[in-house]
Design goal:
The chain has about 425 residues and is of the alpha+beta class. It contains ten helices and 16 strands. The strands form three sheets. Strands 8, 9, 10, 11, 13, 14, 15 and 16 form an eight-stranded mixed sheet that branches. Helix 1 packs across helix 2 and helix 4 packs across helix 9.
C-alpha cells in the first residue's frame, strides 16, 4: 500500500472531492473500438494509474486494482472510486467527437495525467486512422517508467533550506463580491474560449510575456476595469509546478503550489511590456529553490500534523477549512502545450474543468491551432467574462467563445467504497 501524502488536501472534503476533467474535442466522431484498444495499450505504460483507494484509521492508501476499466459511450460523468468505474480513480468516457478523462487529485495532478492523455490520444489516432504517426516525445507501451515517476514528494521528511531572506510576497488581494459568503448550494458555470495560438504567441513575444503572464495581466486588467471599488490589488494565484526545484522532475503526484502576482495601482500605470517584466521578476523571486522548498515544507508539516490524528473524522475536521476556501482574486492554471505532433491535425481543442472551487478560475491548455481557456466561476454574473472578452478584443487577438455552460463534475466515492472493496 502507498500512503497518499501530497494529495491529502483533496481527501477530506465534505461529501467528497469533485473530479477534474480533461475534455478533448476531436474533429471526427469517436470510434469506440479504437479508443478501447488505445486505452488498453496506454495503460501498459502507466500501470500506477490502475489503482483504487483504501482508508485505514483516517489515512488513505493507493492499492492495486485488478478490475478492468469500464469505457462507456456517454456524455455523463461518473463518480470516481465508485462501482460505476470499478473503483478506479480515473474514468474515460466518450460521445460523438468528445473524449473525457476524469481524474482524482489524490492519484495525480494535471501534469501527472497529461502524459497518459497524450499516449492515449497517440494510440487512438494510430488505431483510428491506421497511420503510424511521428510523435517523438510521446511515452509508449513497453518503455520503462522515468526515474521518480511514481515518487511521492512528501514521504521523505522536510527539504533542506539554506538561511536566506525570503522575498516579500503580497498574498492579500481584492475579493470578488460574488465569491464572498456563498452560502447554500452553489451552481458552477464555465465559458470556453479558444484563442488563435499563432497570434497569441506572437503577441506574447512582442510584449515580453509568457502565456501565463499574458493571461494574468489581461484578466487582472479586465477585473480592475469593472471593480472600481477594489480596496486591494487584483491578485492572480498562478499555479506553479514545484518539480524542478524539488528535483522531482518526473513525478506524477501532486507537486504544485502558488505564485502570487498582484496587479497594483502602480503596476497599472506602467506599459504592458514593463508590467510583464515586473511579473517575470515576481515569478523569478518566488521560484527560487529555497522559496519553493519552504512552501513544500509547509505542505509536509500539514501532512505530519494529519499523521498525528488517528481517525478519519479528526482529520476531516482539521481539513474543513478547505470546504469553502476562496483564493482572492482569481486562479490561473496553465497545463502547457501537448506533445502530439502529427496527431494534432485531428484534434480541435482541449479543455480542463472541475466544479467545487469558490470564485473565479482560468484553466489554460494548448493544442494545435488553439490556446484554450476555460473560464470557471461559482456565480452567475456575466460581468467578468464580458470584461475579459473586451480586453482580448482590444489586444487584437483572434478568438471564439462559447455560451455560458452550467456544469458540475461529480464528487468521488472513494471513502464510501474503500472499505467495501478492500
Amino acid at each position: 500500500m502507498e500512503n497518499i501524502r501530497s494529495g491529502q488536501a483533496y481527501l477530506y472534503r465534505e461529501g467528497g472531492i469533485q473530479s477534474t476533467v480533461i475534455d478533448v474535442r476531436m474533429k471526427d466522431n469517436i470510434c469506440g473500438d479504437s479508443l478501447t484498444k488505445a486505452l488498453n495499450r496506454a495503460l501498459l505504460r502507466y500501470p500506477y494509474l490502475t489503482s483504487k483507494m483504501k482508508e485505514q484509521n483516517g489515512d488513505f492508501y493507493l492499492i492495486e486494482n485488478p478490475l478492468p476499466f469500464i469505457l462507456e459511450e456517454t456524455s455523463k460523468l461518473h463518480s470516481l472510486g465508485s462501482s460505476k468505474v470499478n473503483y478506479h480513480l480515473i474514468d474515460i468516457t466518450y460521445k460523438n467527437k468528445q473524449i473525457c478523462v476524469a481524474f482524482h487529485h489524490g492519484l495525480c495532478d494535471g501534469r501527472g495525467i497529461k502524459p497518459f492523455i497524450e499516449t492515449l490520444l497517440y494510440y487512438y489516432c494510430t488505431y483510428s486512422y491506421k497511420i503510424k504517426f511521428d510523435v517523438p516525445d510521446v511515452r509508449l507501451a513497453g518503455e520503462p517508467l522515468l526515474p521518480g515517476e511514481t515518487k511521492e514528494p512528501f514521504d521523505s521528511g522536510k527539504f533542506d533550506v539554506s538561511d536566506t531572506i525570503l522575498p516579500k510576497v503580497t498574498k492579500d488581494g481584492y475579493a470578488l463580491p460574488e465569491s464572498i459568503n456563498q452560502d447554500g448550494e452553489k451552481k458552477y458555470y464555465r465559458y470556453e474560449l479558444n484563442i488563435n495560438h499563432e497570434k497569441f504567441i506572437k503577441f506574447a513575444k512582442e510584449h515580453n510575456a509568457t502565456p501565463s503572464i499574458l493571461i494574468a495581466l489581461l484578466a487582472s486588467k479586465a477585473i480592475k476595469n469593472i471593480s472600481l471599488n477594489a480596496d486591494k490589488p487584483i491578485l492572480c494565484n498562478l499555479a506553479s509546478d514545484m518539480r524542478k526545484e524539488l528535483n522531482l522532475d518526473n513525478t506524477s503526484k501532486n507537486c504544485v503550489s502558488s505564485v502570487y502576482l498582484p496587479y497594483s495601482t502602480d503596476l497599472e500605470k506602467l506599459s504592458f511590456e514593463r508590467q510583464a517584466a515586473s511579473y517575470r521578476e515576481m515569478i523569478k523571486e518566488q521560484k527560487q529553490e529555497n522559496v519553493v522548498k519552504t512552501n513544500a515544507n509547509n505542505m509536509v508539516y500539514l501532512s505530519d500534523k494529519l499523521d498525528e490524528m488517528d481517525s478519519y473524522e479528526a482529520k476531516k475536521k482539521m481539513m474543513s477549512f478547505f470546504n469553502n476556501i476562496s483564493l482572492n482574486t482569481f486562479i490561473i492554471s496553465y497545463l502547457g502545450q501537448t506533445k502530439l505532433g502529427e496527431c494534432e491535425q485531428y484534434i480541435d481543442s482541449m479543455h480542463m474543468y472541475s466544479s467545487g472551487t469558490n470564485g473565479l478560475v482560468m484553466n489554460m491548455l494548448s493544442v494545435g491551432k488553439y490556446i484554450s481557456i476555460d473560464f470557471l466561476q461559482s456565480f452567475e454574473t456575466e460581468n467578468y467574462i464580458n470584461a475579459f472578452i473586451q480586453v482580448i478584443e482590444e489586444a487584437g487577438l483572434d478568438f471564439n467563445v462559447s455560451e455560458k455552460i452550467e456544469f458540475e463534475t461529480p464528487r468521488d466515492s472513494s471513502y464510501k467504497q474503500a472499505q467495501v472493496v478492500a
